[in-house]
Amino acid sequence: MTNKKTTSGKGGSNNESSPNIAPTWDFKRVQEESQALFDTYKNMLEKPEAKELLLRELCEQRAVMYQLIEAFSINREVSSGAANNASKAVKLYEELLNLTRSQGKNFSKRIEKLEDYESRGL
Known about the structure:
The chain is an all-alpha fold and 122 residues long. It is 72% helix and 0% strand.
């Protein structure tokens, strides 16, 4: 995972290799980032090319939003597929278990018949 810098220069993602489910964007961080972005945009608007810079930033944010929507959609599909595969695996395991039990019972009956023949001297 890349650690892309936000407009304020602070990291916008968690770059740890182990999964971290604790949110890093708590209320305090949102407020700090919001203020830093406000200051950045305020300074940007003082430049002659302000409209162009602001429009470029807006377009980049929109494109990133589309990228995130796509990633969430793909993640949902993959998770759904994994759940379906797990369900199929459980069903196949149960079928195999039942088949093995049935075969075991049949073998036991055959062995009992052979033992019965043997005990009768046939």
